[in-house]
């Protein structure tokens, strides 16, 4: 049962409805709020009924919260920013999910030193999309780290994944299509074999602005490109599949 009134909030914080399974999350305009890419990743990733799952760059914990609707597995998240890690822990407590979700505050690049190698069945990650450039200086620290590769690069994220996931385990990522060549190249370099790709288009006639990709550690070469996922109809309304995903009744099949 949700305990919305028992978790303290900072003055700038609010509680948002995740629109599924009576889940709620703490957010603030002072930090980077989750967006559609996190929701799509939580529905796209292959998850076992039980096991051990890890969400890298977990932010305020939205992906671990959503994953509880799909599996009884133990779920962990790691976040380098103390403010966001604290928000994630309070959101977990607010939803009475402390026995299902553990949030670590720390650096994904060194997590293997304490967690061990190859200990997770599934890893999800919604990493910073943009390489460092001058524009990151215009944002506050929380927003800059969420958007730009300040705390970790794409290569470091993939290195962390291969250290932490077991042989045959799955790694699912959401990113920008412009980085797809880099993602596939780095995954193969570090023994993660891409198995499934799905492009997300804002509208049917527009180019993709997100890509979902799932890889298997030490898998055999074989990748399948899934049908495109369209977000909006021509009437500027969510497509039926997006509505199903948001309300938790549909998964983005890998």
From TrEMBL:
Return the InterPro entries for the record.
Answer: SAM-dependent_MTases_sf, Small_mtfrase_dom, tRNA_Adenine-N(6)_MTase
**Top-level taxon:** Bacteria
Mind telling me which CDD domains this protein's record contains?
AdoMet_MTases
Q: Which residues form the Methyltransferase small domain?
A: 38-145
PANTHER family assigned to the protein according to its UniProt record, in alphabetical order: TRNA1(VAL) (ADENINE(37)-N6)-METHYLTRANSFERASE
What is the designated name of this protein? tRNA1(Val) A37 N6-methylase TrmN6
Species for this entry: Paenibacillus forsythiae
